[in-house]
Amino acid sequence: MAADDAGLRSVQLPDIRRRARQGRRLALARACDARPGLRVHDALAGWGTDGLVLAALGCRVHLSERNARVHEILDARLRTESGRLLGERPDAISWAHEDARDRWRAGDQFDVVYLDPMFGEHPKTALPAKQMQVLAKLAGEMTNGKVVALIDEARRVAAARVVVKRRASAETLGQPDWHIRARSVRFDVYLPVPRCRA
Ligand SMILES: C[S@@+](CC[C@H](N)C(=O)[O-])C[C@H]1O[C@@H](n2cnc3c(N)ncnc32)[C@H](O)[C@@H]1O
């Protein structure tokens, strides 16, 4: 499947620009406290839509995607669209085919870790339904237990916060410190857990 088969290139950039123009009115921006220079790890990249919005808001974003087919499509998309979106800030975005946890364990530093896990019934906001269905088929779903384990590990890495996107009506995972509600999704925000010093 090529990137165009998933309908990724034609409709997304104007939508990403439109979202970024909302600035702090955008729930994603408030949840991540998006601002120029903030180091964000979009650890579950998928098609990269949320990561592109955060980069357009001025953040420095690294995207990790572990599924080879999804990464191939993401790579084709970002090669084309990141330059068009970010112009003179090409260094604002980077991406890799990797498990996000390997990057944490390698010691990379991020202010915010952003997690948008794949659930059986996904919120309608980030992507049109067809694109999310393709993604679900390729990448599979995540159990709550796996998401909780990721949150726990991410809280030991993020300097400022971990943000988890959930369906608006979904149960809470662990104990978020606060949440930001949008129309059909909720962003649960977790503060970092201090690392033990030797
Ligand atoms: C729901 S999608 C993310 C959608 C994304 N927010 C967007 O805007 O396109 C979740 C993605 O996370 C990926 N994933 C799951 N576990 C991962 C891990 N440990 N490291 C990196 N990617 C992972 C899956 O392959 C899937 O593509």
What does this structure look like?
- Helix 1 (8-21) crosses helix 3.
- The protein is globular and about 40 Å long.
- The chain has helices at residues 8-21, 27-32, 49-56, 68-86, 100-105, 129-139, 144-154; strands spanning 39-42, 60-65, 93-97, 110-115, 158-167, 178-181, 185-190.
- The protein has a single domain (3-190), classed as Rossmann fold (3-Layer(aba) Sandwich).
- The chain contains seven helices and seven strands, in the order H-H-E-H-E-H-E-H-E-H-H-E-E-E.
- The termini are far apart.
- By secondary structure, the protein is an alpha/beta fold.
- Bound molecules: S-adenosylmethionine.
- S-adenosylmethionine (SAM) is lined by residues 43-44, 46-50, 64-67, 70, 99-101, 116-118, 126-127, 135, 139.
